[in-house]
Amino acid sequence: MKQGRIFTTLLAATAAVALTATSSAAAPAKVSKLTCSLNLNAQGQPNPSGIHLGFASCPRPFGKGLHHNSYTVTPTSPGQGTIAGRFKNYYDRGTAKGTFKLTFAATSPMNITYTGTVAYTAGTGAFRRVKGTGTIRCTTSDGGAHKACTVNSRLTGI
Question: How distant, in Å, are the alpha carbons of 20, 49, 99 from that of 64?
Answer without folding.
Answer: 40, 27, 20
